[in-house]
């Protein structure tokens, strides 16, 4: 039962579809980490159980080989006793001949018992050998799955880190995007534009004030010239009248 349970667990884990499990997971990375731990623990546990199963098989094989060796030894002893009995019988010693024949029979009985033990162990050994091979195959599949899990986990972690780095980069670019009116730079630029507009307004106001002053100066200069010309005209007329009066008196 224990061996079958171990084998069933190995077969189940070896057949696990990693991609399907990941699709069902809320956090694939955490699930992969847990699966790697579970697989590693199960592999270690299964390796210990398989090692024990192999050890048990080797003990059965040792007992089987020992039974075969015992059968051969008892067969040799039976043969030796039978030959000794034949020698005594050829020499006319029937008592010793009978004695060694009896020994040969005992040896044959023990040979048969050893052979029976060996034959009885053969099905069990064959079954255990099959189980061991299946367990070894299952362990190999588990180790392959573990490598897949580790590769998948490493790939996923790398992709997650890359995605996080790209998000950070996008956030950084967005924060300094001068075309984004909601960014700090956009608000600062808007403030500068307002200050520049204020300066232009002040300059225009100052310019209009200077133009008015210059216009008033020009008006004042024109008026002064008019007054001067009027005074000159009057002076010229006065001089002409004086000259005319002087001519008439002469």
UniProtKB/TrEMBL annotation:
Belongs to the PspA/Vipp/IM30 family. Keywords: Coiled coil. InterPro entries: PspA_VIPP1. Residues 132-205 form a coiled coil. The keyword Coiled coil applies. Pfam families: PspA_IM30. It comes from the Bacteria. This is PspA/IM30 family protein.
């Amino acid at each position: 039962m224990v061996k079958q349970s171990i084998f069933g667990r190995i077969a189940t884990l070896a057949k696990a579809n990693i991609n399907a499990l990941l699709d069902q997971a809320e956090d694939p990375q955490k699930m992969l980490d847990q699966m790697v731990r579970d697989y590693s623990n199960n592999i270690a546990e299964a390796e210990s159980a398989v090692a024990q199963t192999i050890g048990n098989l080797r003990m059965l094989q040792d007992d089987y080989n020992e039974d075969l060796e015992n059968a051969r030894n008892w067969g040799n002893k039976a043969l030796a006793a039978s030959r000794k009995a034949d020698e005594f019988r050829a020499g006319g010693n029937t008592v010793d001949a009978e004695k060694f024949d009896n020994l040969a029979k005992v040896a044959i009985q023990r040979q048969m018992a050893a052979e029976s033990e060996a034959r009885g162990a053969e099905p069990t050994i064959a079954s255990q050998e099959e189980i061991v091979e299946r367990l070894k195959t299952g362990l190999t599949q588990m180790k392959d799955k573990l490598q897949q899990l580790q590769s998948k986990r490493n790939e996923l972690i790398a992709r997650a880190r890359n995605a996080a780095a790209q998000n950070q980069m996008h956030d950084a670019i967005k924060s300094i995007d001068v075309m984004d009116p909601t960014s700090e730079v956009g608000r600062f630029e808007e403030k500068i534009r307002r200050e520049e507009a204020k300066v232009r307004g002040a300059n225009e106001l100052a310019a209009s004030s200077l133009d008015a002053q210059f216009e008033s100066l020009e008006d004042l200069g024109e008026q002064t010239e008019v007054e001067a010309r009027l005074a000159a005209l009057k002076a010229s007329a006065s001089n002409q009248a004086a000259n005319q009066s002087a001519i008439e008196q002469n």
